[in-house]
Protein 1
Amino acid sequence: MNQDPTQPIEPFLKGLVSSLDLNNKAYPNVEAYATQFARQLKPSSGVVLNGNPIVSNNSKLEFQKNWLSSPLTSHQIGNFDCHLIPGTGTVLINVTGKVRFDESGNSRLNESADLIQTSITDQKKPVWGSWFGFYLHLVVDETVLTNSDSELINNFDYRITYKPKDSVVEI
Amino acid sequence: AFPYPNPQQMFFQDEEIQGMSTNFVTSFFGLWDSNRRDLIQLYQAESQFSLSVDMSHPHMLEVANVDFGYYLPFSRNLTKISASKSRMSKVCIGPDQIFKAFTQLPKSKHELVTKPDMFSMETYRFPQVNGIIINLHGTFGETAPPENLEAFNNAAHRNRFQNNRNKKPPLSNKSFDRSFVVIPGPNGSMILASDSLVIRSPSGCDSWSKQSKLPT
């Protein structure tokens, strides 16, 4: 127990969170883009967003479809901690930090519900709103310590813990 | 639209763990606020406890200058600690270490029963240990300084440039996230295999209250 096994967790979390924040610029089609979101989820992962469970036999796919329809996000990790649970082959990780949403009215695919569309060739820049607080709790396979890019997330529990009063995007 | 514009304050994977987890949380925090020593029977030799402080977490604007001085000596915020020795030593393992840490945290009041709207919770099964995971979020009040000031005084002593050895942090409300792994023990008892606590500035309960709507 002289070696600290938890070192690989931080790059794993950064990769996970930045996959949630991807924009679609680098991807040839919607599918190639959407399947990047939290790609370390297992198809059968337990996913709960703000107390709402995803009920589906492919929760990963369902989560990715849902996430695609949300506004662009920008997450910053402020804190994380983890416990290896002896004899289970799993690591419990809790992450807190802040997240802001694009308030421009466009979806991640650069589409808006406005009837008069601006030219598609216009690059739309996100208009970031105020910071929200988030908490993310993960149950991941111990393989995260050696190869963090495989499907290894058993549970993904995401909760917004602070909502700013001046958020424009509440409808 | 954000995938789920209507936040649900509580999530229970099924009815059985709804009863278990609400009972557990109510009695745990009853004792946490009144007599932490009585909680020690929940922890066994391999049980783990750690806490971490997120000082950058967004919080209510009317709250200023929240002091985390009592918590920082224990904080295992792994984004800020790189030395592997201290990353490992900041996890308390077994009832003795865990109880010692508990005595060094401010006394508190969680109004779970009288103001349940201030809290939100998710629970689900953890089949690898035949247990359940409970994640609780909310706000508590600090009612008195810690019983044991050893860690606080040591930290203040090391920080000689601030000359704050005798200055006690003001008590205030804090928000928190706490995650428990509860597994069944012998004779219907419960064992806490893992307990992790995040401490942050007060953030209210707007993000899960009934009238709340999240980004769409």
Protein 2
Amino acid sequence: MEFVLLIFLPLVAALFVPLLYKRIKNIHTGWFVFVIPVILFIYYLRFIEMTMNGNVTTSTLSWIPSLDISFIAVIDGLSLLFSLLITGIGSLVVLYSIFYLDKKQEKLNNFYVYLLMFMTAMLGIVQSDHVISLYLFWELTSISSFLLIGYWFTRDRSRFGALKSMMITVFGGLMMLGGFVLLSIMGDSYSIRELIGNADSIIGHDYFTLALVLILLGAFTKSAQFPFYIWLPDAMEAPTPVSAYLHSATMVKAGLYLVARFTPLFAFSEVWVWLVTGIGLLTLFWGSFFAVKQTDLKAILAFSTVSQLGLIMSLLGASAVAYHVDGPDAIIFKVAAFAAIFHLINHAMFKGSLFMTAGIVDHETGTRDIRKLGGLMSIMPVSFTVAFIGSMSMAGLPPFSGFLSKELFLTSMLALRDFELFNFATWGILFPIIAWIASVFTFVYSFYFVFKTFAGKRKRQPLPKQPKEAPVGMLLSPVILATLVVGIFFIPNIVGKMFVKPAVVAMQFGLYNHPNEVAVHVSAWHGLTPELLMTLGIIAVGALLFLTMKRWQKLYEIQPQYLSLNALYDSLMIFGESGMNRLSRFYMTGLIRTYLIYMFAFIAAITTIMLFVQDAFVVDMDSFSALNAYGVMTAIILVLAVCMVLFAKTRLAAIIALGGVGYSVALFFVIYKAPDLALTQLVIETVSVALFLLAFKFLPTLKRHGESTAFRFGNFVIAAAVGVTMTLVALSAHSQKLIPSISEYYKETVFTEAAGGNIVNVILVDYRGFDTLFEIAVLAIAGIGVYGMIRLRLARKENSDENK
Amino acid sequence: MEFVMSIIIGILFMAAVYLILSRSLLRIILGTGLLSHGAHLLILTMGGLGGTSPPVLAEGVTDYADPLPQALILTAIVISFGVTAFILVLFYRTYAEHQTDNMNLMKGNDEHD
């Protein structure tokens, strides 16, 4: 079977969810949904043996062949690992949600449709080999995440969080699309594997760094890196299963996946190594530091997620160094790749279980506020155990899986210190120091999370609900995850062989031929190494800080609210909205005159500029015909009449002067041998003046409406500019005739072809009869319009009379 | 002669634009009238003013004025007449409804902002 179709299985299943929800009322809809990820999980397990041997399999579904766009699913170590995480944790989350969401009170059909949509999107991201389909799935995760965060859409905070995450991730997604387009232009292919194959031609290209930065923007916004992490804490308004699934285990790792996937292409760039490592470390520190400040259980976990994602990101950056170093030194940076993937797995496990316990606490006590909680250990022993295991793993203590990956992390950061490329020699010493400080804070917030919630005394204030242990079904998923967290500690090398090494081979394409070449052996006791000493330091300082928390927590009040990144985001949004509003109010005045000024000024300016820029202004005196005494006299009369129109004090004078202008134009037609025109002009001018006079009785008197001198002067300047422009255009156009007139043809054939003598009339009705037809139509329409306008008024008046 | 005509056209355009930019609707309509005169004369001038005989077939004449611009202007005159008549009625109706021809007062009301 083509496994590319399996990506769409959840989406197709989503179509049946509303049906099942509406028809089968007594079974929780989640049970039907549960089947889908389980089937997929079992299916993907089959591929493990294949990737362990370093093999890759692809499957193609053609979509738009003429544009070379198709769905290409590739299963290699990296995409298999992610697919298993998505479907595995997906199954557990669905199981958990069955007990978490009440089937009577919640709109379950919405929830599971969004969740299945999300599952398809994630599977699509990790398996796509085609950049355009990757982008498609990428945006689908943004949309489904938006829907899931806003699941309780009647709450303001939910809508705010959903919108914020949408704005930031879609911004990143669009940047990433730009990067993909540049890449496909440079590498002349849409396929990621082919692009990596063409790396040589891409690396030297001018757009290389730009594409790199754009793609990183996509990865950073999705994976909540500094300074784009701000959407993640607000996304905690989502139901807890969603937070556990999207905002800890899967979606936020899409950015990490992207970075890992493109490492073989971009690792050669200095910018990449610096940005990925630097931003990763900064995020790691920032997230861990601010997690201690939070009082909401889920907010602590959100900041801790941000921090852990930063950790993995910095490891991915360090792993890129492996492409620059040869020989025995290289092994240490290959460890970084291993550590990144290994920690990614561990994080998905323990963070998933922690979110689920936070959800259980919320569900059973009615609050997530850590200040109201305490002393739940004896009431909720199972939840406590799970939370304890998760937190200790997060803090990096043995015997939990987090310990192993954190040791590897410290090893990699220590190795960066000695790396002497790209100025690392100067700044390298900072890497292990920041990593160490961040680990101390990680230790503090992990303890803070678990002990402030479960240990200590019960608070005097009664909780919203009488606390009790959660039902078995709800505990099942977190217990499974916690078991894995402990289990991985004891069998790290089996996990490494099955999942991590094939993923590393995919991620560091070109460095290995077979997963077995990834020579990393993880052991809990690795000798008295510097990293072990660092861990001991972390425990000592962390414990000290945790015990004295109350004394130094005032530190967080130093940063004023208005200087935070959230305030920056808010003011950007407000500024964007009000700024644009003010801008459009500024130039859209609602006055026709303003818009006419824009148009006239633009016409005059652009025409004049182009005349001189293009050297088109030419006056050729020889092409002009001789002065004609009658013509000059008529011109004088016309100018006088125009002045009369301009300066007329009464409307009667103005109308008569306008008539004067019309009659002098008719005179011009006589002088320039245009008898038909003269005739028409005379008649029409007479009728026009008659019309004006007919309406005279109804028209207002001529008033200036208090036009000031400055107002008139402004009008005069623009009018003069337009007038001069027209004169210049007329002169140059006449001076440079490029081709002879086609009128010779009309003159020669008017009698032989059309049997007429009056050439103008023959043109009107014979050669160019269509013009005349539609000109008649114009007159007819104008006539109907005039009639309609007068009738319409009567009709409305009658109506309004009836209303009275 | 084309030189003089070009200047006349410029003056007509200038006067028309000046009137169109004013506050009184009546003056705006006067301006559109001048604008169409300017455009018609421009077409005529661009065709050349050198012809010595009207474009009607006659024995022994070879130097006819260019008939094509004349046909174009004829069409334009009729169309601009139709439009002018329509605008005039529109103006009349506007004035009857609003009792003003001050463009500043015809901004639409705040409800439509």
